[in-house]
Known about the structure:
The complex is a heterodimer of chains A (241) and B (207).
Chain A lengths: L13 E12 L2 E7 L11 E7 L5 E7 L9 E6 L5 H8 L6 E8 L11 E6 L4 H12 L6 E7 L8 H7 L2 E4 L4 E2 L5 E2 L6 H8 L4 E7 H13 L7 E6 L1 E2 L1
Parallel strand pairs in A: 7-8, 7-12, 8-9, 12-13
Antiparallel strand pairs in A: 1-2, 1-6, 2-5, 3-4, 3-6, 10-11
Chain B lengths: L27 E2 L4 E2 L15 E6 L5 E4 H5 L4 E8 L4 E12 H8 L7 E6 L4 E5 L9 E6 L2 E2 L9 E3 L12 E7 L29
Parallel strand pairs in B: 1-6, 3-12
Antiparallel strand pairs in B: 3-4, 5-6, 6-9, 7-8, 7-12, 9-10, 9-11
Amino acid sequence: MIGPTSGPGPTGWQVAAVTEIARPATGFVRIRLDVPDRQPGLPGQHYVVRLRAEDGYTAQRSYSLASDPGDPQIELLVEQMPDGEVSGHLHDVLQVGDLLEVRGPIGRWFTWTGEEPAVAMAGGSGLVPIISMMRWAIRHDRQGDLRVVAVGRTWEQLPYAEELAAYGAFIALTQENRIDASGVERVSAPPYPDEVAPLIDGTTRAYVCGSVGFVGYASRLLGESGVRADSVRVEQFGATG
Amino acid sequence: MTDDGLITRGFTGRRRPAAPGQLPPGQYDVGDKWPVLSAELTPSVRTEDWSLAVDGAVETEQTWSWDGLRALPADSIVRDIHCVTTWSKFDMSFTGVSVDTLLDAAGPTSDAGYVIAHSASGYTTNLPLADLTGGKAWVVWQAQGKPLTPEHGGPVRLLVPHLYFWKSAKWIDRLEVAVQDRPGFWENNGYHDRGDPWLEQRYVGDP
């Protein structure tokens, strides 16, 4: 694994203004921010958000962007974590017009700008950087070079469900049957190898993003489908007990 | 700019650290959980096939098998670890061999100043030699009293607890001693060359 050696780098801290807040899926808040003098970025990168209390105490977390670099604003999709100190504030307190300290864009590994045909497998909030890549693909008319496998528990809990469906992503719901636009019903289950194989075919790179458990499942599936381990780029979150 | 502080409207914060001196700036105490992060698939490393090389700018290249490593004098240590993604985990116990023991056997040449740590996955990270010597770094096979699991870098990972945890390369199989510094994987991808959490050296351009 060798990463790129140049490209957009992070800035110092900047003050961004919240322009839009929405709740598109259960447990998620979508936040759009205006970042003056924003640095150029790559699809798949993240920003850090820092909150500061009056006594100077700070808390900061990293969030992937759903927006692609051509968007005049940045878009975060933040999952509410149990007892989440930062996500709780962003869900329950944040209002349009608030100012937030942000820093980015960060990370030059989990990025895609069409350099190779790729398949992306993501689950839950792991879909966020893939949305950025999808929007980049649409803007550059390169949808054929980015195939997407999206996994969620239910339609309500699948971030960007409508956008994924419109893109033509393969959607696997694990706790709910789904009838797609062509009337075909899929019984609730994780994606099967024979469902994913046509999307992998012809790609030379894979992106996997999600929880530790999801990444383990996706890794086995890709391995069984003949994807080379060194062509897979991973971003994972979550913990062991 | 704003390093002196924009106060976030309505934010009070919940997790004031019990021992403020234990938590580097911008970090939080993750508690009992141990988050898993990696940029690549978890490789399946079998101890039967595994070995650890110390080579490059050394007097005598060395290689240890799993059994050979385990035959070296081991330390049990308790340290806090700090991830650049802002979690810290306190009082982690590890068992392993001091990197001093490995380097002493190989003998870095007098002009050596750096080490590139290599993983079975192809991951690399670079460190000043001085950050690996003097009882500051280990190669470990046990954490919290149990064998290190694959997602946490097992069977053997590097442990350099005084730097951000991306420097503690998982699935370690080679320590390449070098005369010149050479950025590793994350150091090539926007992260700081040294990564001292107390100086908050997270990204390129930090102090």
